[in-house]
């Protein structure tokens, strides 16, 4: 029994024409690949043809090899085409999917920072740009650090136990963050350029006062520091914090630890002709400031003939109130989520 | 300090409107906190002459008074008993008039007679207490037809001036006049002190003597005598001024002492000379057991620190604070001894504080009264008493003043002024600024020698003068510059608390900031066992409220209260944290103030469209794990039965990093919840951040490049075996290529597990650094591990 290369070639051609028809009916990638594997496998139709290779004259055998390879290539190509068609259909079907995109998203844990933390950080960052570093100190303080070193005399009303909280063991709850100035100057030589944010305590508890509140103080000590430097520093701060250039005025005032001492008013950022916030004056008080009193320098071992410095202090709640409209100081400390989650 | 505009203008010429002056005073350090216009609340009341009067036909007590205001004539019904005879002048509120309190006057019928308006009493005009009689004007007071507010000098302006603690000289009209004068370059006019000459009366020294025992507490004591006085009411202008500054008029003599105090700032006291035993004044410290009834009727028991004014018998006044009842000026008084003295501010302050007795006098002495001005004030008061109470001023003055005050002299370097203010002021301008304040200036080379007036006790040092120049020059004129200082940071800020805040917020918690003091009850509710560091809280000596009584030793005391607050307001899902200091006794003067972080969780886990089930222990633990993952630290959790009292003993874990105990996480103990009024399960953690051991920055570890192989094992094990025990067995002698393992399931449902057992599914990852592991070697290693687990845990493979 013998066959010719033509006969076998025709069989391969028939396989090649049958294959595309068969796989065009198949609906899954798995079925297509299985079908291809059967065609190309050891028991597949091509292998079946090739098994009869030995029956060909030796000279025709390479020809059949060429034909068989062509058939295999065709099967590969048709398979790819079928898979691509399948993928196209699947893509088209997938693109018909729809969701109600107006439903809420899957919530991630949603926490928030306290508005005073946010404002405190922002204040620190603004002064940080000017080279002020953040300094901190304890809240329970000695009389010396809180009063004596700041030239507040022993009979000053601020020291009364009607104004200042005292704790057992002759210590007190700091009434300002100025003790941090003292601690810093005792620790390091000039120049000093710090801000000291933190909570402070005063015996005031009414609609506009909280017995604990947050303050930020600044201190800059070096040779040749002038009150104009204080003004420029605060002007820069106001511009950055309120986002616009605001005027500032100094009113002469008295604090034992600064001389000259001033109260600082900023131009009202919220009105042009007078509003409730500025009490129709066009000016809003933001804090106290001045040039560090020589007595304070002597108390920390600085030479007031060599260095001068300015200091300022302002309430963080007040700055927050001015920018964010929080009108009740108690809200900051109640932990009420209706307040906290707004920021 | 209330400043009456008309009074101020007697002392200094001012052309500007009160509002403008107030603005300049405010900038110069005398803040005007309010401006009150007097007399604006009265309108349509005129001075009218009584023409005739006849009884009301139907009411006994009423009179029909015909008045004439120069333009109109009308018959007015009047109920007052003191209708004056024709020719006298009264105040007629015509129909349409407005009285204080917004009262409108119309045409009214009274017992059948129509009354066009009314005749006014002092009370109705708000100018005095008398509500029974109508006002009858004194001769020379007002013209017929004149507006009543003008005629009585009711129109005035009152400035409410805040005087800072160092400026006692501002507590009188004269001091404010000097300040305003300086701002406008005007000199003040001193008030008149020229008393009418006494008729060759006695010298005061023959009637009174003064001994000062303690010249430190009383550096000056002057006494003057005024006799032949007739006590009576003060004239209306004086009463109005006293009322405008907030003092109730009493009688001419007492009113004068107050008037001069508000005018000059010098407190004065008038003793009834006939009630000063032997006319002898002794100024001395109090002795044990002495008593004194002060003018307010209170019996006082002075202590040795208090200074007394005594007569030959005993105490007659608390020096500088308040006079005594015994020697009070009364209706029958005819002779007074007028005290004008100076007392030590600290002594007055202590006495006033201790007795809780604050007077206009003590307020002034506390801030320092110019002792050099005492004689002038005494003369001014004597003149007014002579004028208004018909007295005669005795010759002479007793003046005990052992060490007359020398004016302070300060050397000022003009360069210093320029250096501090940052303004290139000419020396001449500096001199001008100082002189306008009444300071004497001598120029010597590069130095100004400045002599300060005795009333400016606040001027002691060069820097004080720099401030004066700044004030007068005006801070508006100072430019804004930036300091040239370049200070390299000494040490960076502690970033850990800030990082923890960010991580807690990222983990879904809202930041709260609570008070650092709390109530003992809230701390007790946390059930810290005795001896626990948090069980002993530092007490606040003078709290205002119970919840300020102690410093917190745990953030949870107030944070759990914030949770309660939120639940009470209808919140159901509450997740809060706080980072802050707690206060622990240290044995030293100041306590330790470590920084803690605490969190509370309550309610439902957030899910999509609906909650994802109730929050439980693992949510709280998850937050803590996330926190330490964010910090790049490995935290270890171990059962913390009865570690701290505020957690449920079975649902509490201690948290450790590098073997250091940092705190706990767990379900809040039901008793703690009950004591804090929290009605549902909640979870909490608290960690001491200050104890977190320092760590090196993380170093990179090469990761495996060859494929990892996963193997599971599922087994039943005794219910009480913790996951950490399984991990411990795995870690002890773990297979060479085991790189990770974790628990995937822990299930205990009845029917799925044998009694007393639980099912667990663990997953193990095998990977080698140098090659792809074969199935066979992984299987061998895994099976060996499983066998070890089953044996050591006495578990049974599922």
Care to describe what's here?
The complex is a heterodimer of chains A (about 350) and B (about 800). Chain A is of the alpha+beta class. Chain A contains eleven helices and ten strands. In chain A, strand 3 and strand 4 (about 170-175) form a beta hairpin. In chain A, helix 1 (about 5-25) runs parallel beside helix 4, helix 2 packs antiparallel against helix 4 and helix 5 (about 115-130) packs across helix 8 (about 225-240). Chain A is rod-shaped. Chain B contains 20 helices and 39 strands. Chain B is elongated, with a radius of gyration of 42 Å. With about 800 residues, chain B is of the alpha+beta class.
Please name the defining characteristics of this protein.
A: 343 residues; 7-stranded mixed sheet; 3-stranded antiparallel sheet; 11 helices; 19% strand; rod-shaped; B: 798 residues; alpha+beta; 20 helices; elongated
Question: Summarize this, please?
Answer:
Chain A is built from eleven helices and ten strands.
């Amino acid at each position: 029994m013998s066959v010719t290369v033509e006969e076998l070639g025709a069989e391969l051609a028939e396989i090649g024409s049958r294959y595309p028809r068969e796989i065009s009916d198949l609906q899954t990638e798995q079925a297509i690949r299985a079908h291809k594997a059967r065609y190309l496998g050891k028991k597949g139709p091509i292998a079946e043809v090739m098994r009869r290779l030995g029956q060909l004259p030796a000279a025709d055998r390479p020809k059949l090899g060429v034909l068989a390879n062509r058939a295999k290539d065709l099967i590969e190509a048709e398979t790819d085409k079928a898979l691509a068609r399948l993928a196209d259909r699947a893509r088209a079907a997938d693109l018909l999917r729809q969701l109600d995109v107006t439903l809420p998203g899957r919530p991630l844990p949603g926490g928030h920072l306290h508005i005073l933390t946010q404002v405190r950080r922002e204040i620190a960052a603004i002064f940080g740009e000017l080279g002020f570093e953040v300094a901190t100190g304890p809240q329970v303080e000695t009389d010396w650090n809180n009063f004596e070193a700041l030239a507040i005399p022993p009979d000053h009303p601020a020291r009364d136990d009607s104004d200042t909280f005292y704790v057992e063991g002759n210590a007190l709850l700091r009434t300002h963050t100025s003790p941090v100035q003292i601690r810093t100057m005792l620790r390091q030589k000039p120049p000093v350029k710090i801000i000291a944010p933190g909570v402070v305590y005063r015996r005031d508890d009414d609609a506009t006062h909280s017995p604990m509140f947050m303050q930020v103080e600044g201190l800059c000590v070096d040779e040749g520091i002038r009150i104009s430097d204080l003004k420029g520093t605060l002007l820069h701060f106001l511009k950055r914090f309120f986002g616009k250039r605001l005027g500032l005025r100094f009113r002469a005032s008295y604090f034992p630890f600064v001389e000259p001492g001033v109260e600082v008013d900023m131009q009202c950022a919220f009105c042009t002709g007078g509003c409730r916030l500025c009490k129709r004056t066009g000016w809003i008080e933001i804090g106290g400031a001045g040039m560090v009193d020589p007595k304070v320098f002597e108390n920390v071992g600085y030479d007031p003939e060599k260095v001068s410095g300015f200091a300022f202090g302002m309430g963080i709640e007040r700055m927050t109130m001015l920018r964010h409209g929080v009108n009740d100081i108690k809200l900051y400390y109640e932990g009420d989520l209706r307040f906290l989650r707004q920021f | 300090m209330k400043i009456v505009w008309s009074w101020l203008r007697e002392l200094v010429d001012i052309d500007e409107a009160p509002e403008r002056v107030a603005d300049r005073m405010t900038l110069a350090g005398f803040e005007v906190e309010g401006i009150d216009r007097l007399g604006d609340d009265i309108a349509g009341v005129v001075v009218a002459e009584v023409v005739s009067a006849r009884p009301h036909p139907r009411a006994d007590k009423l009179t029909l008074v015909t008045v004439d205001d120069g333009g109109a004539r009308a018959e007015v019904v009047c109920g007052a008993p003191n209708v004056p005879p024709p020719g006298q002048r009264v105040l007629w509120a015509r129909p349409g008039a407005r009285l204080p309190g917004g009262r409108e006057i119309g045409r009214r019928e009274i017992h059948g007679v129509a009354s066009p308006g009314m005749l006014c009493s002092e009370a109705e005009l708000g100018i005095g207490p008398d509500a029974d009689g109508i006002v009858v004007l004194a001769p020379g007071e007002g013209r017929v037809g004149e507006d009543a507010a003008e005629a009585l000098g009711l129109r005035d302006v009152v400035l409410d001036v805040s005087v800072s603690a160092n400026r006692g000289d501002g507590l009188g009209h004269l001091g404010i006049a000097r300040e305003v004068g300086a701002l406008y370059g005007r000199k003040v006019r001193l008030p008149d002190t020229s008393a009418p000459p006494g008729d060759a009366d006695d010298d005061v020294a023959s009637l009174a003597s003064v001994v000062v025992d303690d010249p430190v507490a009383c550096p000056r004591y002057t006494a003057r005598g005024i006799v032949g006085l007739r006590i009576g009411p003060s004239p209306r202008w004086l009463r109005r001024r006293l009322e405008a500054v907030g003092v109730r008029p009493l009688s001419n003599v007492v009113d004068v002492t107050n008037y001069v105090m508000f005018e000059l700032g010098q407190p004065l006291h008038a003793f009834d000379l006939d009630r000063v035993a032997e006319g002898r004044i002794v100024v001395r410290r109090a002795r044990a057991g002495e008593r004194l009834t002060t003018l307010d009727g209170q019996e006082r028991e002075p202590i040795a620190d208090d200074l007394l004014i005594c007569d030959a018998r005993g105490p007659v006044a608390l020096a500088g604070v308040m006079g005594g009842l015994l020697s009070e000026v009364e209706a029958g008084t005819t002779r007074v001894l007028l005290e004008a003295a100076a007392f030590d501010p600290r002594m007055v302050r202590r006495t006033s504080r201790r007795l809780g007795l604050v007077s206009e006098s003590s307020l002034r002495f506390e801030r320092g009264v110019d002792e050099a001005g005492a004689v002038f004030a005494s003369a001014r008061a004597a003149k007014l008493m002579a004028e208004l109470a018909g007295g005669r001023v005795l010759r002479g003055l007793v003046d005990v003043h052992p060490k007359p005050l020398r004016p302070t002299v300060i050397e000022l370097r003009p360069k210093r002024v320029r250096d501090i203010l940052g303004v290139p002021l000419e020396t001449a301008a500096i001199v001008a600024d100082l002189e306008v304040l009444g300071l004497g200036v001598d120029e010597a080379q590069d130095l100004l020698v400045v002599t300060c007036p005795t009333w400016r006790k606040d001027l002691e040092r060069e820097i004080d003068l720099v401030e004066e120049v700044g004030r007068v020059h005006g801070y508006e004129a100072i430019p804004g510059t930036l300091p040239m200082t370049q200070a390299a940071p000494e040490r960076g800020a502690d970033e850990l608390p800030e990082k923890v805040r960010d991580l807690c917020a990222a983990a879904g918690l809202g930041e709260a900031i609570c008070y650092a003091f709390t109530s003992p009850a809230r701390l007790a509710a946390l059930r810290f066992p005795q001896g626990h560091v948090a069980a002993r809280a530092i007490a606040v000596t003078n709290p205002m409220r119970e919840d300020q009584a102690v410093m917190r030793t745990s953030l949870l005391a107030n944070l759990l209260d914030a949770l309660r607050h939120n639940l009470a307001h209808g919140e159901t899902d509450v997740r809060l944290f706080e980072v802050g200091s707690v206060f622990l006794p240290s044995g030293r003067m100041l306590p330790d103030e470590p920084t803690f972080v605490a969190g509370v969780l309550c309610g439902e886990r957030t899910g999509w469209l609906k909650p994802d089930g109730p929050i439980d222990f693992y949510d709280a633990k998850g937050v803590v794990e996330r926190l330490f993952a964010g910090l790049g630290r490995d935290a270890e959790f171990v059962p913390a039965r009865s570690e701290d009292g505020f957690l449920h003993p079975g649902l509490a874990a201690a948290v450790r990093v590098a073997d250091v105990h940092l705190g706990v996480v767990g379900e809040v103990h039901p008793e703690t919840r009950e004591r804090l009024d929290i009605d549902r399960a909640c979870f909490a953690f608290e960690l001491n951040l200050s104890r977190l051991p320092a760590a090196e920055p993380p170093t990179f570890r090469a990761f495996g490049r060859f494929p990892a192989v996963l193997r599971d094992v599922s087994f039943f094990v005794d219910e009480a075996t913790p996951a950490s025990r399984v991990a411990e067995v795995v870690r002890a002698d773990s297979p060479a290529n085991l790189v990770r393992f974790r628990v995937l399931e822990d299930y205990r449902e009845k029917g799925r597990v044998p009694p007393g057992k639980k099912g667990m599914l663990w997953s193990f990852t095998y990977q080698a650094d140098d090659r792809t592991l074969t199935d066979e070697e992984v299987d061998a290693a895994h099976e060996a591990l499983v066998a070890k687990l089953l044996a050591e845990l006495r578990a049974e493979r599922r």
